[in-house]
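Possible race condition, two jobs.
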Amino acid sequence: MPYISDRLRRPDGCPWDREQTHDSLRKHLLEETYEVYDALAGGATPALAEELGDLLLQVVLHAQLGAEAGVFDLADVQASIARKIVRRHPHVFGDAVAETAADVNRQWERIKAVERASSDAAARGDADAADATVAKGALDGISRSLPALAASQEMQERASALGYDWPSIEGVLDKVAEELGELARAETDTDRREEFGDLLLVVVNVGRKLGIETEGALRAANDKFRNRFRRIERMVAERGVAIRDLDFATLDALWDAAKAEERATAEQRAPAEPATTEERAT
């Protein structure tokens, strides 16, 4: 891959690739990341392999640009992540003990905190890493480019790893009810917007407590809504009327019909249960 990226960037290489910069490639990196995310829904498939390759190409191109600038190359990228993984797995590559995934997560966050403090101290020329921890907190490394749901879940995961978390799901559900009440009582657009954001954040925390990846859950719900609404549009078209001419009650009844049709289709596609001994004997 380094040979290919170098060849593409040469004067007699590809005009498009020669024009690219770290900044111009940002949108392509984001697009390829989401295409991998979508392909993951199908599991280990040739399509996923292809999308992973497209994403890998973006990494290689950025490494090529880094090499041309004399800052880093692909070997440096590989060495950097290798050092990080070894450093953050002392229970595998060292003498630390972590018997559960929760132990690993807590250890991971502790190590990251030390890394952040050291990095900030080095940037400031400050020998006291402890003081640097104040300047760079546990949430500072979360990209602002992340989708809001994913960023919210990551923030709350990190806060939980540091001990800021409800002991049970009941506490979070109580908070949902509290935020719903505050939203209902909000009197201005500004207040409603703020309270709605607070409600969303707590709902994300419900998903986190249940072990649900909230970004994926909402995407699945979006897909379900899209497919069900298409069924409604088909039903309306079969009636020979315009969907805009129907009132909400009629459309809601069609929604229920589409939902029932969806379930029936799913049941037909489900594998049949093995016949019982009595059924096989008849």
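Job #2 (started ~2 s after job #1):
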Amino acid sequence: MDSFDPRWSDDVRGGERDRGGSGVEIGREVPRGGVGSGGQERQVPTSRDVRDVFVNHVDLPRGETRERVYALRESYMLRGSESRKLATVGAFRVVPAGNLRDHDGKPLDASRGELHHLRREGLVDIVPSPGRGRALVVLTSRGRELLDGHRHRDPDVAGAWRPHREGGAREREQATRQEFYSGIRQPRELEHDAKVYAAYLRAAERLQEQGARVRRVVLDLEIKRDYQRFLQERNRGRGDSDGRPDRTLDEIHRWAAEHQLPEQDGHVQIPDARIEFEDADGRSHWHDIEVETEHYRGQHAAAKAGSGFNRYQSVSVRIVASGSRGGGGRRGRGRGLAEEMFL
């Protein structure tokens, strides 16, 4: 277990690195395709490792030697394992330092090595886990700007197109776009949110064993945002609106069905994360995961239990309901997914 040292929150960049690039970092400068670099996007073969899913969406260094990359008016020195960490933390918003690996495959130490380097570059912050004293990693706004500025322009590099979805190029891009997040959303949910990445790893590894290829992960925040846009669509631009949605139960039911989410009496159940993947035949599917904690009580616990999500309890973790959702919207029983594990 990682122990948290309050000194990790200090600004360690001052005096250690010149933002203009005249520090002592050893590496090579390679123009890349992000904002301000003026370079061409380098085509890098995408990895099928479930830990590499998120870095496959960006054009950042993938080798062992640190390279200089640019975002807006800043430059940073990164190697491949550091690019992977930035993309992973950005995709899940918060990840325990002990769940991340350095270039030698060892768990990260928040006070030294690659994580210390990323903090010195101003790309990540370290925060304590409430009540447990372990170090949690989140992106800074600079870290998110770096990822967003270096997205792959070729959608086939980042993920598969969804040909069954209607709409133009922008809609198709949004359907495959991996969102990245910075900062802390809700401090009281920090311990719960920090467990989602470990649940993803176990589920994604099992899916991969069945021939699946993970394309991206959609967090509950993104699904809730889309749901609120749907609920408030008729209120936009209306000065006389009281802010309350006027969607009917039938409309909510149809929205939930289109997004393959369970709904009852107008209440839509949203998972902690949705894994989007392709099976061995190239067909698109979803796998929803829910991390349960000791704080689940009463109607909330009952609703989650009846949702059909793949549920992960926070200490001794057992997949209570297994399966995935494919294009037809039917719930299927997963094979080889039920087991005990620890987060």
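Residues 196-209 form the longest helix (14 residues).
Logs attached separately.
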